[in-house]
Write a structure and sequence with these properties.
The chain is an alpha/beta fold. The protein has two domains: 3-57, Winged helix-like DNA-binding domain superfamily/Winged helix DNA-binding domain (Arc Repressor Mutant, subunit A); 66-250, Rossmann fold. The protein is built from ten helices and 15 strands. The chain has helices at 3-17, 22-28, 33-45, 66-70, 75-86, 100-108, 122-127, 153-159, 185-197, 235-243, and strands at residues 20-21, 50-52, 55-57, 93-96, 115-119, 134-138, 142-144, 149-151, 166-169, 173-175, 179-182, 201-205, 216-219, 226-229, 247-250. The protein has a seven-stranded parallel sheet with strand order 6-5-4-9-12-14-15, sandwiched between helices. A three-stranded antiparallel sheet has the order 1-3-2. The protein is elongated. The N and C termini lie far apart (47 Å).
Length: 251
């Protein structure tokens, strides 16, 4: 097999699965593992993929910090946030994850009913400073500055006592095989804990998150209740969500 053919197959596999395991790929194609690893090194040097122990992942673009991301409030995020906010019922306990999309939920929360918002994001709590009917519970812990959320043992201990009615989970990517994912191990662990304790877990999915994978899996798609997404998502992406048994609210 020619080098160009091998590399094309490698890229196809990474796009399909969100990763490539060198040993398994070599066995599948009856190649030496050294050959595959050499191809991966060359492709990484060309900026085509990201080398990791045992294989490769898609290139993850450098993520801007939270302040920069917050300045970009697209119409899509506003629509998703408004739909999520409309789901909240009087008296419910709602856990709002961090992130710029979930900030749009905070801005759209109803002001005519009483409910409790729990969050481990100081920026989300700040959005609710002047909200007339929302009781706000802020979870503390070590601040993960990229996403502006509390993580670690202190946050986990506080979260363990809460049973939210709805959790609006923030994820950086949604993939049929790798589920909901993000970029940090501790952040993923906290998200997973909150979801396990919540009666329902919903994810707001902007178009660029669908069919993508980040380095750390939060949980499989089947573990969530549903996804709120744009009507502009492709039919194949809708099928991916449907196959996982997820409810879909399109706005």
């Amino acid at each position: 097999m020619l080098t160009t053919e091998r590399k094309a197959l490698i890229m196809d596999r990474i796009r399909r699965d969100g990763r490539l395991v060198a040993k398994a790929f070599a066995e599948e194609l009856s190649l030496s593992e050294d050959t595959v690893r050499r191809d991966l090194r060359e492709m990484a040097s060309e900026g085509l993929l990201s080398r990791v122990h045992g294989g490769a992942l898609p290139i993850q673009p450098d993520l801007p910090d939270f302040t920069a991301r917050r300045a970009v409030a697209s119409d899509e995020k506003r629509r998703l946030g408004a739909k999520a906010a409309s789901m909240i019922q009087p008296g419910q306990i709602v856990f709002l994850d961090g992130g710029t999309t979930n900030a749009e939920i905070a801005r759209a929360l109803p002001k005519t009913i009483a409910f409790t918002i729990v969050t481990h994001s100081p920026t989300i709590a700040t959005e609710l400073e002047h909200h007339p009917t929302a009781e706000v519970v802020l979870i503390g812990g070590r601040l993960y500055k990229h996403s502006m959320v509390a993580v670690g043992a202190v946050a986990a201990a506080a979260i363990s006592a809460i049973r939210p009615d709805i959790f609006f989970l923030g994820a950086t990517a949604i993939h049929p095989r790798h589920g909901f994912s993000t970029g940090d191990f501790e952040e993923a662990a906290i998200k997973r804990q909150i979801a396990a304790q919540s009666s329902a877990t919903w994810v707001l999915a902007t178009k660029e998150k669908l069919d993508a994978a980040s380095p750390v899996t939060i949980m499989p798609l089947e573990a969530a209740t549903g996804v709120i997404a744009s009507t502009q998502v492709e039919a194949e992406q809708r099928q991916m969500l449907e196959s996982a048994g997820l409810e879909q609210l399109l706005v």
